[in-house]
Input
Amino acid sequence: MTHAELLPDFTFLRPIWLLGLLPGLALCWLLFQRSRSGSGWESVIPGRWQQLLLDGRRARTPGPFLLLALGVTMGVVALAGPAVRSPVHLAEQNQSSVVVVLDLSRNMLAGDLPPSRLARAQRKIQDLLARPEGYQVGLVAYAGSAHRVTPISDDYATLTNLLRVLEPGLMPSQGNNLDAALTLAREMIENLPRRTSAVLLITSGADGDALEALEHHAAELGPRLAILGVGTSAGSPVALAEGGFMRDEAGRILLPRLDAQTLGALARRHGAGYQGITQDDADLDQLLGRLENRVASSADRQVILRDVGHWLLLPLVLLAALGLRRGWLGVVLLAALLPPPAEAGWADLWQRADQQAMDLLAEDRPDAAAARFENPAWRSWALFEAQRFDEAVAGYAQVLKDDPNEADHHYNYGTALAMAGRYEESLEAFEQALTRQPDHQAARYNRAQVEALLKSLAEQAAAEAAEAAADEPAGQQAEAPKDSGTTDATGDPAAGDPAAGDPTEASQSSSDPLQAPPTTSSPGQDAAALAAEDSGDISSQTAETEGAGREATAATGSPALDPEQRQALQQWLQDIHDDPGELLRRKFLHQHLQRRETPP
Output
């Protein structure tokens, strides 16, 4: 029988307060007795007038004092903390969190575990994500430097997308900086409960300074550290991309070997776990089973009691209202029975309209959110998400009238204009944003995209005009100077019209129904993507880039363009830089340079 099963079904968390019942009830009795003894006027008013002038019935009525005694009893009981036993499931306490620290040194390219150590390690991390326990997982990669790839979360899709592109070539420097990697992993779990968090180190080995660092961190982490060794004691040469094999300083071919005995002994000294990588899940069962056992035993030791004293406050408030003024209880009950106004919903009692609209937007219902928003900027954002770009343009225009000096408003206005096909106006809006905030990178990027789109349209128009001129009969070309400014029998303008001969002006004067540049999925997202790239979270940028690509694909249909033009422009809009490996490379390099420039 567990500790939780021995708990009573009902108890008091603060029973000392129950001692207040005796003086409280005694005070109510004394007040009642005093009211029966009279009000003091009996000694002054003659006896024959007392019955007429004094309310004797009120003095003898015990009803108010009974209500007072009931209120005192409920108040004391609530303070005593009545509690009931309630089962708590494991998932309700804390979802287990695992930070995976992955070795990305060149030793992981050794082929002693086919196809390579790195491929086996990546597959093992995918096995971890597929486990039914549903861990929250974070990922740290290290070689000569250490970098957080993803924060702790259950976003397995993003983690898998980034995991498949990890390879030693992404790292800005080679080496075995295990100290920095484990320091970063410990920072990620320092605010998490010890019983539900762990660090899983996947390494091809450690020696020298790396081994000393591992000893130090194992002493600090203890049972929270699990080490998974990847490799064999025989080792294998590491093939280089440029040909040949990795060599040491003396020119000898290196054979990276896994010293499983040293790692295992280190783990045992500090209560950590060590396992060599296996084909099945036996290694994860052994390492993570320690974490699951700690969670289960901790759950068994917890006192699972829920304080329900707060439920006594509602009847206590009603009693207080009834005691202070007659008729209050009836008014409260009557108000509770009245139906709410027709235009108000149940949610209006708890949330403002903007809060309700934000929930609708989170549920991917932008049309309903736009109808619910009261804040004009947020309403315009919802209209943008609903792809009602003309209405979004009108909304942002009104926002600019109220606050014309905010750079973000001009940026959002320009983005909506671009998605509505009003490219020249969007360029002006982006310029306004950059005038007010020169370092607004999102506005600068979208302006460049719109300029590139206009240039592409102008080049296409020029190419079509040249092709049309080449296809005209020679006789018509010879007569063109004579008939300049006239029309032929079919009513087409003469070839010598200057306005018709400038494809750039023709492209700009026509209404182009194309929508936004490919990276603008909603106002403010480009800024978030650039900030994520610089500050460390690449997962949000990857998700936004993929979403923008889908939106750009849907935005290229246009009745004003022929199929060939539409296909060409669709290809242009879909040409989005969406390489997670390159994004990680730039992120790691940026962080590495920042750390080198920052004095210790």
User: Anything to note?
Assistant: The CA atoms of residues 37 and 193 lie 63 Å apart. The first strand starts at residue 10 and ends at 12. Residues 441-471 form the longest helix (31 residues). The mean pLDDT is 74.
